[in-house]
Amino acid sequence: MHLHQRFLSCRPQPEDQRLGGWPYDAQEVDLSLPLLERRLDKDRSRVIHSASVRRLQLLPQQGGILAQDSDRRLLSLALERQQVGRRIVHLIYRKLHGNLAKHELARHELAEKELTEQEPARHELTGLDTALGCLVDVGCLLCDVGRPPFGQAGELAVCGWFDSHLPEFGGMTAGGLSVDKKEGHAVLAELCRFDARAQALRSIVTLEGISLTHAQSATLLGRHEPWPEQALSGPFTGNSYRSEAAIETAMRGALGLTHRSRHPAAYLVDAADAIAQTLARLEAIVERGLIDPAGLMTQLKDTFQRRQGQRPTALNERCFCRHGVVRRWSLGGMLDWALARYQRDRSEGPGQFFHYLRLALGRILVNHGADAFLQRLAEVREGAPRVNLLAVDPGCRILMESLEDLATRLEYLDPDRERQELDGFRTICGLLDAALPALRLPMQEFHQLLDRQEASSPVLGAWAAGLPAGVVRAYRQAISAPAEGMSGAVQETYYRGRLVHDWICSHTETSALEENMRLRVSGRQQS
Question: CB count, 10 Å around CB of 397?
Fold first, then answer.
């Protein structure tokens, strides 16, 4: 498989997309790079102007902080992730064009045979710098567009609530589907799972109707293992939801990806996400006053030492390098340099400290990510599912694990963290409880509710009135055509559950709180 086949410029046919189907032009195998770059630039414009991306400015960064309590937003995290991803791509091509790839790989003591095997794959990257950069740029921006309000607490609330109430859905009772029927239950059990990348693909492509190229959509295919119920519910075992099965199947067919393999740009998006998100979490912790910069450096050194096995020389071992710098760095030296520069500037806020910390840690992590991409390019070209660019080098892997462990441990020092997460969990569960009567309705009555012809209670009427038009449109299109491997009852129930997922993910934290209060007031008026 030539690497260029992963970069086809084909996209869904717009006229068929409006009819609710997703046939792809399998005959379009145009490898014209100028055409690909033009279409990717159109993807970027459509995504930047989308409602899903605008929603990110109203959601706080993950960590259980309510929007009104923090100035840090998911949009700023997406921009930081974009910059890291852009820098990795830039370094990859600097190494290639500067004839440094072989030199850098040799420093990792690779065998000459391995270097020779990698050389053809490196030549395949020639000319793809603009296309790869655009794919990573937009992929980094799209990572968080599918997240529900309240971050991980919101995801847990959705999964737990659906798991508890699945047998009560209309399609499993009034619709005539037996809970014991293995295939139908496995299809509906997908509603008890939540995947942010899968929801992002659904939000952009299905709900907003933005026709992305195959290659751009493929950057959203995650690396999770197939869910157990997927093996019981037909041949589709992809990384997206079953509602986007046709999109993923056609995409993989056009790009030559197997059901487990990934797109080359997806590895870079993952690396950029891990670097940007970990440093942003630590910065938020310092900003909230949970620890000062000096204490953070001390704890990071201790955590790194423990993961190294208490080796006394681990902190001073020069195992990290930056592109263009012959001298190698030790973790202790980098952390001491960042803290010394911050203290010398006598800055009152932690922002300047993290500026230096990003210069120290960010640059070496980006460099190691670029080296790993070139080092494992043959596996990346084939889409190996288990490749993690930041875990190829042992020192880089231990550093990332140390940063993530420290961030997780320090976040829970906040006395308000647990309360905020519980408030978010209760809010999402309250919204879902308001939607439960609609999920129990037979299909005909549910359609009458959506048409606003009849509502058996004020709560149901208020709930239906608050549904976004795009969410309702996606539901109607999905049930208008028979789905492969699903009976009519299972299909309708599944997409009704997807409608509720989409409704939850359309909210911000503020709008979720307001909607929950509005539905509770409607319930009191009924009683």
Answer: 16
